[in-house]
Design brief:
The complex is a heterodimer.
Chain A lengths: L3 H16 L12 H5 L3 H15 L14 H10 L4
Helix pairs in contact in A: 1-3
Chain B lengths: L2 H20 L15 E2 L12 H14 L15 H13 L3 E5 L2 H12 L5 E5 L4 H10 L2 E5 L4 H11 L3 E5 L11 H11 L2 E5 L14 H4 L8 E5 L9 E5 L1 H6 L5 H4 L6 H15 L2 H20 L11 E7 L1 H13 L2 E2 L1 E3 L9 E6 L6 H13 L10 H10 L1
Parallel strand pairs in B: 1-10, 3-4, 3-5, 5-6, 6-7
Antiparallel strand pairs in B: 2-8, 7-8, 9-12, 11-12
Pfam families (chain A): PP-binding
Protein name (chain A): Acyl carrier protein
EC number (chain B): 2.3.1.47
C-alpha cells in the first residue's frame, strides 16, 4: 500500500488526469465545476477512477461534497478500507 | 424579464464569449472544401453516398412514389417496401426482427424510453452516444455511467445498484476504439443484465457481408438490442433497432419518436435497400477501408500525433482545447484536409479533437496528402505542447 503522502499525491494525479489539468493548475479548494469547467460526467469519472485506484466504494450521493480536492480527500478519508 | 428569457439571454451571451475564445470560426464561417480538397469529416465509410446503384434507386423511387404517404410508421402496412427492407436487414444482421427509425438518435431514444421502467439503473459507458443518455432521461431511468470500456468498474456498479440495461457503442465515434464486447456479454449474462449495443460505426465496415461487430464475434443471440444510425456506411438518413420479434411489433406503437413523427420517405427506403445490396458484396471496399485507416493511423503516429486509443477508420487528432482545435482545423483546411471539430457537448471539456474519418476510396496519393498536411502544420499548431502529445511522451519513458 502507498504511504499516506503518496496516496495524497496520487489523488491529485487522478483528479488532474480526469479533468485534463496540470497539478499546478489545480489549487486545493478550486471548485472543479465553477473554476475548471468540469461537467457532471467528469466528476463521476473522478469518483470511479478513485474507487478503482484505491479499491474503495464511494456512494454517488457523496458527489456534492467532492467539489474540490480538499472535499475529495475528506470523503476518501471517511471511506471503509481507506 | 422572465426567468426563461433571462436564461436564454445568459446562454446566448456565454455562447458568444465562447465562440470569441476560439479566435476564428469552427463551424459556420469556416472554409468550404473545394472539389480537389479531401473531405474527411463524413461518416460515409464505403463511399456509397454517390454510388450509381444507390442514386438510381432513389431517383426511380422518387419518380414513382413522390414523397409517399407522409405518415407515422404506426400506419405502415405489411406490404410496404419499408417492411421488406426491415426483413432483409434482419436477415443480414442475423436478428429476429428489425424496426426502422428516422435516425440513430430516434432509435436509441425510442428504444430505451419504451423498454426501460422509471427508476431502473442503466449502465452506460461514459463515452456512449448522447442519444443513449437521452433515452435514459426520457425513460426517467437512472444513468449509472461506467469508466470507458472498463468492465471491472461496470461490474462493481452492477453489484452496488442491481441488474439493468448496459448501453454502449461497439465502435466509439470520436475515440475510434472498440468496446470489449465479449467481456460485456459475459458480464451481462453473469449479472442478469441486458445489452444495448450501438453498431452505428461498424455496420458495413466489419464482419461477414459487413453486418457489424456483434455477428462477427458470433454474439447475435446474446445481445438483446442492437441499434444503429444508417447515416454512416449506409449513406442514408435513418436508424434501426434489431431485437426480438415481439419487441419489434411493440415499439412502433410505444416508442414516442416512432408514433409522433413521420416515417421514412419511399426514396430513403429505396436508397437504403440499394446500399444494403452493394454493402453485402463489398469486401473489396472493406479491405481498402481497413488498409487506408491503418496507413493513416501509422503515418500520423510516426509524425508524433497521439491518436490513441483509435484502432479503426475514426482517427482523433487531440489538441484538447477548443482554441487548439480551431487553430489545427484552420491550418489543415488551408492544406485541403477537412476534418470535423468535436467540442463540448460532443466530447468532455478539454478533450476536444479534430476527427479524421477515412473512407474506402481514398487513394495512396490522397493519404500522402493528408500526412503531408499533418506534417507541415506541426509547429504552427504547437503539436509538442498538446497534453495528448506530452501524455504519449510520458508513456514512452
Amino acid at each position: 500500500m502507498l504511504t499516506t503522502d503518496a496516496r495524497q499525491i496520487r489523488i491529485t494525479e487522478i483528479v488532474c488526469d480526469r479533468l485534463e489539468l496540470e497539478p499546478e493548475e489545480l489549487a486545493e479548494t478550486d471548485r472543479f465545476v465553477e473554476e475548471h469547467g468540469a461537467d457532471s460526467l467528469a466528476l463521476i469519472g473522478v469518483l470511479a477512477a478513485l474507487e478503482k485506484e484505491f479499491k474503495v466504494t464511494i456512494d454517488q450521493s457523496e458527489m456534492p461534497r467532492m467539489a474540490h480536492l480538499a472535499g475529495v480527500r475528506e470523503v476518501l478519508s471517511e471511506t471503509k478500507g481507506w | 424579464m422572465s426567468g426563461e428569457l433571462s436564461y436564454l439571454q445568459d446562454r446566448l451571451k456565454a455562447w458568444g464569449i465562447r465562440q470569441a475564445s476560439w479566435g476564428g470560426p469552427l463551424y459556420r464561417g469556416r472554409a468550404t472544401p473545394g472539389p480537389t480538397d479531401l473531405a474527411l469529416m463524413s461518416n460515409d465509410y464505403l463511399a456509397l453516398g454517390g454510388h450509381p446503384a444507390v442514386l438510381d434507386a432513389q431517383i426511380a423511387s422518387l419518380r414513382a412514389h413522390g414523397n409517399g404517404a407522409l405518415m407515422s410508421g404506426a400506419f405502415t402496412g405489411d406490404t410496404d417496401p419499408l417492411r421488406h427492407l426491415e426483413t432483409d436487414l434482419a436477415d443480414w444482421l442475423d436478428a429476429p426482427a428489425v424496426m426502422l427509425c428516422q435516425s440513430g438518435w430516434a432509435a436509441n431514444v425510442g428504444l430505451v424510453q419504451a423498454i426501460c421502467p422509471p427508476g431502473r439503473p442503466v449502465y452506460v459507458d461514459e463515452l456512449a452516444h448522447a442519444s443513449l443518455w437521452e433515452g435514459i432521461a426520457a425513460a426517467k431511468a437512472v444513468a449509472r455511467p461506467f469508466l470507458h470500456n472498463d468492465t471491472e468498474n461496470l461490474e462493481r456498479l452492477i453489484r452496488q445498484y442491481g441488474p439493468g440495461l448496459i448501453a454502449f457503442d461497439t465502435l466509439y465515434s470520436v475515440t475510434g476504439d472498440f468496446c470489449p464486447l465479449l467481456d460485456l456479454t459475459t458480464l451481462a449474462a453473469r449479472t442478469g443484465c441486458e445489452l444495448v449495443a450501438d453498431e452505428s460505426h461498424t455496420l458495413g465496415v466489419l464482419g461477414h457481408r459487413g453486418a457489424g461487430l456483434v455477428p462477427s464475434l458470433g454474439l447475435t443471440g446474446r445481445i438483446a438490442y442492437r441499434t444503429a444510425s444508417l447515416a454512416k456506411a449506409f449513406a442514408g438518413r435513418a436508424g434501426l433497432i434489431a431485437c426480438a420479434k415481439e419487441t419489434a411489433n411493440y415499439l412502433p406503437y410505444h416508442s414516442l419518436g416512432a408514433v409522433f413523427s413521420s416515417t421514412l420517405l419511399p426514396h430513403d427506403v429505396a436508397g437504403l435497400a440499394a446500399a444494403l445490396r452493394v454493402m453485402s458484396d463489398a469486401d473489396d471496399r472493406r479491405k481498402r477501408l481497413d488498409d487506408n485507416a491503418r496507413v493513416l493511423r501509422e503515418g500520423l503516429t510516426e509524425l508524433g500525433y497521439n491518436i490513441t486509443p483509435s484502432e479503426s477508420q475514426i482517427i482523433p487528432l487531440q489538441p484538447g482545447t477548443e482554441h487548439g482545435v480551431r487553430v489545427l482545423q484552420q491550418a489543415l483546411d488551408a492544406r485541403g484536409v477537412f476534418g470535423a471539430a468535436f467540442v463540448p457537448p460532443s466530447v468532455p471539456n478539454r478533450r476536444c479533437v479534430q476527427r479524421l474519418s477515412v473512407h474506402s476510396e481514398l487513394t495512396a496519393a490522397d493519404l500522402d496528402r493528408v500526412l503531408a498536411g499533418c506534417a507541415a502544420v506541426r509547429d504552427e499548431v504547437g503539436l509538442a505542447t498538446w497534453k495528448s502529445t506530452r501524455r504519449l511522451a510520458a508513456a514512452h519513458h
